[in-house]
Amino acid sequence: MIGVVLSAIGAVVTWNKGPEFGSHWYPLLLVVMAMPCAWMGGKLFHEAGTKGALACGESRRNGPSPVGKGKKTMADIPVPNGRAAVIDTFGDITAFIRSDGTLSPKWEETKIRRVTLPRPLPFSDTATDVTRVTCHVLIVDTLRSALRAIDDAGKWPALHSYGGGFNFRPKRGSGEISLHAWGIAWDFDPEHTPLGGKGNMDPAIVEIFEANGFFWGGHFKGRKDPMHLQYATGT
Ligand SMILES: [Zn+2]
What is the CA angle 113-115-121, rounded to 5? Predict the structure, then answer.
């Protein structure tokens, strides 16, 4: 818009300056020519802003999100129920599996992002701290809100440790691809929450995750997986 304003000022200033400034159509032409440039600039800026919103570590929303307080917003992705719905919502990973059985790096490039934790968490069984965790690009905000709510509730230390997020592997004990491969599942405190056991995940942590749409593996109908949280039900 600056171009338009400057040209318009130029038009007014030079309008009655006599023949050395050219005829009257010349300043008008400058105004007309500045219009598409201003419009293009605005459009490019808008698109850059839209792309930036998808990057991990960035938020579509400004300021604190209300999701962590148990409220849902329009920006939330509905929790898929069943495998077909997972594929519908988060993408068909089988299309990215190469003939040798490995996953094309394009899947991770296009679908997986990293969310910065409210504070570091030890990686299970190591002395290394994790500062970011992986997740599907569509639920960056949802996961971040849940983790912040856990921290806000003073429950961060009760998470104990991080066991992993995005991981292309079969679901343990079945031929199905694990939901970890979609970046919609995470394990916490694997040392104290073995597969098949009751586990000891803090009920307040489970409650916060569930209020944000996540499903806890400790509530699986069959074999319990109390270290596991996923953004899907029925699978
Ligand atoms: Zn898991």
Answer: 130
How many A from CA of 165 to the centre of ligand 1? 7
- Ligand 1 mean position to 217 CA, how many Å? 8
pLDDT digits (tens, 9 = 90+) for 76-106: 799 999 999 999 999 999 999 999 999 999 9
* Model confidence pLDDT, tens digit, residues 106-125: 999 999 999 999 999 999 98
Q: What is the pTM of this model?
A: 0.68
Torsion of CA 37, 43, 44, 48, to 10 degrees: 160
Tens of pLDDT along 194-214? Answer: 777 778 899 999 999 999 999
The domain 67-230 is classified under which CATH number: 3.30.160, 3.30.1380, 3.30.420, 3.30.750? Answer: 3.30.1380
Contact 182, 86 (CB under 8 A): yes
Distances (CA, A) of 20 to 13, 28, 33, 38, 58: 13, 16, 21, 28, 54
Which residues have C-beta under 5 Å from ligand 1, the single-atom ion? 185, 187, 228
Q: Provide the β-strand partners of residue 97.
A: 103
> 71 C-alpha to center of ligand 1: Å?
26
